[in-house]
Design brief:
alpha/beta; Rossmann fold; six-stranded mixed beta sheet; 21 helices; 45% helix; 18% strand
């Protein structure tokens, strides 16, 4: 057993977070911890890192187990460059390489089997630990998180707060802890990075404990699910969808068992009542009483905590057929990030997708007038009224109460109407007198959505509306938007949400090119995968048949791939020579061999670089 919490309990003051829970990690499984906001998921992770302690219960872990957590991944010296800091992760490998170099020198004069065996042992250890691949791995992870290669030589203190968070994520992944703890890892990552991270975590050779409200991410990674609900924890095998199905079946089964037992109790109580006062039947009545006393009572199933807000977006006006006409619109700050031409028609629900920094949020801000256009034009149609949700503005700060915040925006409504709306968004009783400043991220989103609903717009522009919502909250928003008869233009990185809402896709790449796809996410995803397949190198003859127009460098990429394979075979042959007495007894020959190995490594890296350039066109 790698890690175990046994009969664990935690409370803050009089509020119990969870009680008597059982949680265990056996080895390399990928575990999702799920539940409503505030159920204790993040508390559990903090207990695992040692930041918090259990009030009751025991923790057992294998000696030397390394636990990695993003919030605890820091940069002690921010005057270092990124490269200098990240390379410290690989110091054990660098020390191992130094030992190998010393042994190489020693083998020039010491021909003993002990030295040779020690070299073989260390060389195997070095290779297995990624000694020959760590530099390329560092570069891959760094660039996949949206950084350019030249940024490696920038000092850490020159990066923004958001960039430092992503750098910490890179450092955490490269450090390869035995247990990798991830709390909402997809927040603020673009779709391309999320999909790459999924593949990385599925291949990760150690344990992962994941807290996320991204349903597709959970489905693709989780092998086991622990649910925290009403202070208890229950374990399920399978991914998130499997967990949902199992939970539903368990509830049905428990309800059936409860109903059957209640009928049996009713039957026994009826017999007891009939025979209790009859002398000839008294013994039977007593036996039934004892049967009731011995019966292990089955609890009625506790219904899942699915309470959520109830939004109903209703446009005040129908508006014209053309909602928005965009002509060669250039958006950005000091320079254009992208150029867009698009006609949006009534009833469409368009998702704006693309990597971070391509201009998605900038487009939304431009269309609502918060930013000036850098070129081109846009024109709203007849009787079009907009409603805007901004992921950053939704996290506003205010000394007003929740009641005042909404009422000040809609003074024409009376107190009862305002409180009714707030109640629909789960602000009840004294909640309405909380100041906005003390609200959680999810509560602020709900308050912003309440404002949006009262606006009664026929065109909604939504920038990351699901941020800070838990899964039940996302489902409530999906239901509300699917019942909306107006038009929606939205930005989101939640693929499940996009799949449920979008009827069309506007994709913007990092070169500022915008392409409109007149269909939903599933077909868009299939199209993107097909394009990737067309661009990827293929070993069979099919790549020869591709036309130059579709992939002009395909033939060259195939040749390079073949050369890389040949060079890697040569590299393996040279490595084997290290164990040949002809070499390890001759210091000069061993040095020459090591130089050949280094040269081959450089050749392979150069070929790999050319191969990647070919694929990028």
């Amino acid at each position: 057993m790698l890690y175990q919490i046994s009969r664990g309990s935690k409370a803050f003051g009089t509020e119990t977070v969870f009680e008597d829970i059982q949680f265990e990690i056996r080895g390399t499984e990928k575990i999702a911890v799920v539940g409503r906001n505030g159920c204790g998921k993040s508390t559990l992770l903090k207990i695992m890192t040692g930041e918090l302690e259990l009030d009751k219960g025991e923790i057992h872990s294998t000696s030397g187990t390394r636990i990695g957590y993003l919030a605890q991944t820091t940069f002690p010296d921010e005057t270092l460059t990124v490269r200098e800091d990240l390379e410290k992760v690989f110091e054990p490998l660098q020390k191992l390489k130094a030992q190998l170099d010393k042994l190489t020198e020693r083998m020039a004069t010491d021909y003993s089997e002990a030295v040779l065996d020690r070299y073989a042992q260390l060389e195997t250890q070095f290779e297995m630990a990624g000694g020959y691949t760590w530099q390329s791995e560092l570069m891959t992870v760094f660039t996949k998180f949206g950084f350019q290669e030249e940024m490696l030589d920038r000092m850490i203190n020159t990066f923004s707060g958001g960039q430092k968070t992503r750098l910490a994520f890179v450092k955490l992944l490269l450090s390869k802890p035995d247990i990798l703890l991830l709390d909402e890892p997809t927040n603020h990552l673009d779709l391309e990075t999320i999909e790459w991270l999924e593949g990385y975590l599925k291949r990760y050779s150690r344990a992962v404990v994941l807290v996320s409200h991204d349903r597709m991410f959970l489905d693709h990674i989780a092998e086991e699910v622990y649910e925290l609900e009403y202070g208890s924890m229950k374990h399920y095998t399978g991914n998130y969808t499997s967990f949902q199905n199992q939970k539903q079946q368990d509830l049905i089964r428990q309800q059936q068992m409860y109903n059957r037992q209640q009928k049996e109790i009713e039957r026994l109580e009826g017999l007891i009542e009939r025979f209790r006062y009859k002398a000839t039947k008294a013994a039977m009545a007593q036996s039934k009483i004892k049967a009731l006393e011995r019966m292990e009572k089955i609890d009625a199933p506790q219904k899942s905590d699915t309470k959520s807000f109830s939004a109903h977006f209703v446009p005040r006006l129908k508006g014209g057929k053309t909602v928005l006409e965009i002509k060669e619109l250039k958006v950005g700050y000091d320079r254009p990030l992208c150029e867009i031409s698009l006609e949006i028609l009534s009833g469409q629900r368009i998702a704006v997708l693309g990597p971070n920094g391509c201009g998605k949020s900038t487009l939304m801000k431009t269309l609502v007038g918060d930013l000036p256009a850098l070129g081109g034009d846009y024109l709203y149609g007849h009787q079009i009224e907009t409603g805007y949700f901004d992921q950053q503005l939704a996290q506003f700060s205010s000394g007003k109460t929740v009641l005042e915040e909404l009422w000040d925006d809609y003074p024409e409504l009376d107190r009862t109407q305002i409180r009714t709306v707030l109640g629909r968004f789960l602000f009840t009783s004294d909640d309405v007198f909380k100041t906005v400043d003390v609200l959680s991220g999810g509560e602020k989103v709900r308050l912003s959505l309440a404002k949006l609903m009262l606006r009664q717009a026929n065109f909604l522009l939504l920038d990351e509306p699901t941020n800070h919502l838990d899964i039940v909250g996302k489902e409530a928003l999906e239901e509300a938007l699917n019942g909306y008869t107006g038009t929606i233009l939205f930005v989101s990185h939640d693929r499940y949400f996009i799949k449920k809402i979008a009827t069309a896709i506007l994709h913007i790449d990092m070169q500022g090119k915008a392409v409109y796809y007149p269909f939903g996410y599933d077909q868009f995803d299939e199209d993107q995968q097909e394009k990737e397949k067309e661009q990827a190198p293929k070993k069979d003859a099919e790549i020869q048949r591709q036309t130059p127009k579709r992939n002009p460098n395909a033939r060259e990429a195939a040749k390079l791939e073949k050369q890389i394979a040949e060079k890697e075979e040569q590299l393996e042959e040279l490595r084997q020579k290290r164990f040949d007495p002809e070499y390890y007894h001759d210091y000069q020959k061993m040095n020459e061999l090591d130089e050949q190995i280094d040269d081959l490594h450089n050749e392979i890296e150069h070929l790999m670089q050319r191969w990647e350039e070919c694929l990028e066109g």
